[in-house]
Every structure is written in C-alpha cells, then in structure tokens.
Fold this sequence. Notes:
There is one protein chain. The protein has about 425 residues and is an alpha/beta fold. It is built from 10 helices and 27 strands. β26 (about 380-385) and β27 (about 390-395) form a beta hairpin. α1 packs parallel to α7 (about 310-330). The protein is globular, with a radius of gyration of 22 Å.
Amino acid sequence: MMNNPDANPPVVIVGASLGGLRTAEALRRSGYLGNIDIIGEETYQPYNRPPLSKEVLAASVDLSAVAFPHDLSSTNTRWILGTRVVDADLTAHKVTDEFGTDHPYSALIIATGLRPRRLNLENDDARGVHVLRTLFDAIWLRADLISGAKVVIVGAGFIGCEVASTAIKLGCEVTVVAADEHPMVRPLGAEFAAELQRRHESAGVKYLLNNSVNKIVTNTAGAQTTLTSLELNDGQFIQCDVLVQAIGSLTNTEWLANTNIDISNGVLTDGAMRALTTSGDVVPDVFAVGDVARFPNPIFGGAPRRIEHWNIPIETAKRVGQVLAAKLNDHETFEELVAQQFAPIPSFWSDQFGMNLLAFGDLGLADESRLLEGDISGDCIWGYYKDDALVGVCGIGMRSALQSYRKSFLLQPPTATTVGK
C-alpha cells in the first residue's frame, strides 16, 4: 500500500456523472486511500439519466427523483462542480478548468460522456426548442409538455420514441420527423421497427419519415423569440409549440485536442481502459470510462467500439477502479489485471407506450434479425446476427426467456473469427 497517499497528487476524474461516480467508488473498494477530485460541469452531483425521458419526465422533475445515493462525501474525496475542464497537459500531469485553475493528477480518468447533437439551424435556441440530456433539460422540457401542445420530435431513436410516449401520456399532439424509414430501425431491423411504429401510431403518434427539418420558423415579441412552426424537407409546414431535437450525440473530447490521445471517435482505449495515442501507444496514467470510451470487446470481434448503453459506465468504471488501484498501490496483480479480458455484455431498456423493451448485446453490429420466440404483434424476442453469429437479443416482455439467451451468450460468446470486425 502507499505509505502516505496524501503526499501524492489526487486521482482526477473529469466528469461527475454515473461513470465518474462509479469509478471513484471502485477505487475505494479496491483499496485506494488517496485523494480523489471529481470535476463536473453541472452543478448537481451524479444522477440517473435514463429516466429523464421516461417516468421522471412524465412527473414533476427534480433532483430527488434521480439522484444516486453514495458515501463519497468523506475525507479524501472532493467534488468540484459547476466547473468545465478546458485543457489537459499530459506531460505536466495536470488539467486546467475554465477559470484558469490547474488540477495536478497522479492519474486522470476521462468520464466526460456525451452532449446532444443539434440541428444547427437558425433559431434552434428559440423558446420551445429543446434537447434532452441533463436534469436542467428535463425540467425545461417538462414545463412545455402541457395538454394540447403540438410537439414535434426530430429523430426516431430510443430517446425520441420515449419522449413521444411521455408527451402522448401528458395529452400532447405528437409528430415524429426522421430521416429513417421506421423508428429505431438501425438497431432493431426493419420488421420489428415497423411493428413498433404500428403500435406507436395506434397510440396517437404521427410519423413523417424519410424527412427532415429545413427551417425553424419563429415569432419575435420584445426580447422573446418563440417557435411557431417548421418547414420540412418535402416543403410542407407543420405547426409546432415544442420541438425536441433527438438526433444523436457528440462526445465531449474537445478539451483533449492538445494531447496526442486518439479522440477520432471518443477516447480510444485498450482492454484495461487505458487511453491510447493516435499511434496506438498507452498514455501513462490516463483512463476513460462510459459513453466516451471506445474499447475492444472480444465477444464482438475485438474492434474498438463506443457503446452508449446504461450499464457500460458501470462496467468500465469497475474495470478502471481495479486496474488503477493496483497500479497506485504498487500491487503485484497490476499486470495480471491488465492482461485479463474485459468483455462486458451491453444492455439497455426502453419504456414506450406501456411496452418494456430489454436488450442484451450489440444490436448495431447485426446484418440480420430473426424472430426467435413469441408473436410479433405481442410479446416477443428477436435475435440479432452478424455472419450468422449471435451478437444480441431484444424482447418485449418474456423476461425469463430473454435472460436465458443472455446466459447462453455469456457462456458461449462468438469468437473474433465468427463475428468479424
């Protein structure tokens, strides 16, 4: 163990969401007793994001509904909130925040996650135009989701469909505009996605697919510019009181631009979640966790991928906590831990119109999907395959059966040869 942990610079975790929290907890569980600084841009301590588009958005949104309980308020853990990190000097082992303060580190954890992609159209910041990522976003959106409001959601992924479900429940008129042929078609496949679209439409959602927004039309009264309608790519205008942009995410890696870390798509890491340079070398004492990390998974062929599923921040945080604590404590197990395979099974859930979708694996890799059990119009399980190897399952209901597929998936993972890259 370290003789005097307080004599060394702290472990600095940049990002105070789930990944940052779980990394700090994993370091403590793994025996690290030194200082930890957790720097976050938001003013809130970590909270649960997935419910923001689901049950929390349908109720009164506040921190108490989503805050994570933890015991990291004791000695040697410091929360530095409302602070954005803008630069990193890997040679000097320090990061610099927006106020010009330097934060030296013994190890750096990159946990900065994602931010919503925006339409980048004129007036995309007008009153009534929203994105949904943070608690603040959810509070503002919930205030506009009043009965009778004409809500347009751009993007038909899981977030967009969950917001549509919530808005319908609140009495709004909901239209979804998306470039795809069906909602959620990329991960779920055309047949399953078309069935979910049918269910959504029967609940009152209107879909304008193979389409996009060309212009946000507003009205200005005094200092307030307010959304009134949208012009679509096909030339039609639709009335709109509330616009939700749900068109994907961008990684928060700009603060690493002056380093040689590979940030071409998030932060590239090895299987121990150690950051890699653009030439593939390990960056000393720098790790990444969560949505921002692009790491290899031997179950899915070993090609590094970013996985934006709810359990990945937890799994990657555990991995970093074990590896880094062993390194900082000069433990002989460090090299053994680094050499161990890291093969988490991604999972996510989505609540829409009374349906609960649950998935395991990496559906986005698939080149084919098949109905495995159940009826497509009721509860069912779909399998997702790449080169005839199972890479994921997704189901509505049928939890026990779905869990059995996950177990077989864990016991007999596809090999790098069968899954490919």
